[in-house]
Amino acid sequence: MRKLFLVAVFLPFILALTAAAPSASQAQYKKTFPEGYCNCVFSPQEISKDKEGSVQLKDSFAKPEKVYARCYFSGPVGKVKGPDFWHELWVDRKLVSRTKFKEPPDANWDQIQIWITEDEYKKQMQGLAPGKHEVTIWVMKNTFQGKRAEAERDASGKIVAKDKEIWVPVRLSKGNFTYTVK
Q1: Cα distances (Å, whole numbers) of residue 172 to 4, 29, 71, 85, 97
Q2: What is the pTM of this model?
Q3: I need a surface site. Which of 26, 33, 40, 125 has the fewest CB within 10 A?
Q4: How far is the C-alpha of 156 from the C-alpha of 14, rounded, in Å?
Q5: Positions of E strands within the chain
C-alpha cells in the first residue's frame, strides 16, 4: 500500500521533470556554439522533431537529392512577430534568399524544420550552376533592445526629439552542407 502511495505522489512530479528536460535525441544532435547560436542537421528525408535517429543525417548532397534541415535554438524562441523571425540561404558565402514568417512561431519553439530543396529555397537550389557549392542556413530573429531619442524635423521645420525603437538581429541557428551540381 505504501509503495502505491509513493508512486501516486511522485509519478506526476517525475513525469513533469521528464517533459521539461531536453529529449535524448535533441541532446545528442544539438550543439551550441560559443557565440550562443545552435547548429542545424541535414537529411535527404524530412526530420520530424525528436526523430533525428530515424533518418540518415549527412552534410554532403548531390542534385537532385532532397535536402531538409532541423535547426535548433539555445532555448524557446520567445514571443516574436512573424516578420521578425526568418531564415536565410547563403551559397558560396553570398546571401541568396531570405524567408520571413508571415505568422509568428509559437513562443515555445526550440527548433524548426526547413524544407530546403522542396519548398522555401527550391528555385534557388535548382538554379545553381554546375560545381560544388558551400550552402549555409541561418535562422534569425529580431529582439527589442529599448528606445532612444533621435532628433528630427517636424512639418514646420522645428527640431524635435522622437523615440525610436532599437531592434537587433540575433542568430539562433547555423548549419552548413555541401551541394554538388553536375
Answers
A1: 45, 15, 9, 10, 17
A2: 0.77
A3: 33
A4: 66
A5: 38-43, 60-62, 68-72, 85-91, 94-100, 111-115, 131-153, 159-181
